Amino acid sequence: xxxxxxxxxxxxxxxxxxxxxxxxxxxxxxxxxxxxxxxxxxxxxxxxxxxxxxxxxxxxxxxxxxxxxxxxxxxxxxxxxxxxxxxxxxxxxxxxxxxxxxxxxxxxxxxxxxxxxxxxxxxxxxxxxxxxxxxxxxxxxxxxxxxxxxxxxxxxxxxxxxxxxxxxxxxxxxxxxxxxxxxxxxxxxxxxxxxxxxxxxxxxxxxxxxxxxxxxxxxxxxxxxxxxxxxxxxxxxxxxxxxxxxxxxxxxxxxxxxxxxxxxxxxxxxxxxxxxxxxxxxxxxxxxxxxxxxxxxxxxxxxxxxxxxxxxxxxxxxxxxxxxxxxxxxxxxxxxxxxxxxxxxxxxxxxxxxxxxxxxxxxxxxxxxxxxxxxxxxxxxxxxxxxxxxxxxxxxxxxxxxxxxxxxxxxxxxxxxxxxxxxxxxxxxxxxxxxxxxxxxxxxxxxxxxxxxxxxxxxxxxxxxxxxxxxxxxxxxxxxxxxxxxxxxxxxxxxxxxx
Length: 499
What we know:
The protein has four domains: 48-173, Thrombin, subunit H, CATH 2.40.10; 185-286, Beta Barrel (Thrombin, subunit H), CATH 2.40.10.10; 292-385, PDZ domain (Pdz3 Domain, Roll); 401-495, Pdz3 Domain, CATH 2.30.42. It contains 13 helices and 28 strands. A hairpin with a 5-residue loop joins strand 4 and strand 5 (155-164). Strands 22, 23, 24, 25, 26, 27 and 28 form a seven-stranded antiparallel beta sheet that branches. Mean pLDDT is 78; it is low at 1-32, 67-88, 105-113 and 388-402. The chain is an alpha+beta fold.
């Protein structure tokens, strides 16, 4: 076998590459080269720490807990570090560190009050030079005594000015002047991917600095406010501390974490500072927050429901029920309406409405845009003050007057009956038809015995005759939207019959 001349082979290969390159150059004399990506160095937080650090405080709280819980070390108290392993508790014991305040979602229940003991550690920041300090409501809630320690080691006993559980914001006051207050930033300028920094007392370790980026804005976690999501390391004890942008401005209050272990897992949430400032101003003036309400029970608008109603796109808040005597009832808002705007501002998702109404001063005159049976209308309304929810009542099932359903209704799987006058009076409705039983399509749509049909195919029905007429006129090739009442609340369903 002939031995391969690797030297010559390499030369030939190189020559071939040069020939090809020359050919390409001949065919395409103008070659556009991609611009190299701009390279940025990592940010330096040292100046920010020096600037903002003195405005961040450590908050320790005392509360009355059961002596058995403290002595037994069962971890049932909020200051016991429930969720921590024995090694972590031993760490605190060895170095004489206070037990940190656990994050809001992870926080266990407190035992019955018996004696005053150390409760936990949190963070906060100075709002004004005369001693107002902002923190989380869950940091100071239930505390018998609040102690605030500054970075210069001065310690003050603080007075709780006000606590708002809905937003998890609290304001406390210390007797001091000339304090270094934070600068408040604009949340609207905050961008996803922007660097941010946190300063607090995780696990009781004061003045700890962590950094990361904004992961998302307007994150809806089911709370009253949309949160700023970050990947900044937030742990028990960081609660109430500031989230700071690269201009040295506070843009949020570190409040919650997503965790399966009780520790940081890369997802943390901060209360937007603009919302928190609004709350703090009311707390400083009145000690509590006053919010608006209109008295409706609402739910999301599903895509298929929006299409069947002719809404055009999925938006708004579906009115499931209207409180008796509420502003909504007085303004003529009905169950089944879809609220699409509040004072001209679009309701993109259901959680937008309570936030908009809640931030409106009680007694104010507002305008609500509702979509009802194919058309939009503006409804004037006077905002009331928020109060506790009204309990749900059950629909009476006595005195039902059954009547045989038509073939069209049977085809939909509906067996219905007229409502008695007593039932209408109890439900505070003018008309409707009670569902006696469901099969096939109606059952698949989620309708069940006891439901009261108020409208079908965008047509209001007062009795069985009107229901049958509406079904007869409806397009058989399209699903039927059904507005029905269950208990106190109304909702929509789509009946898709097989042909």
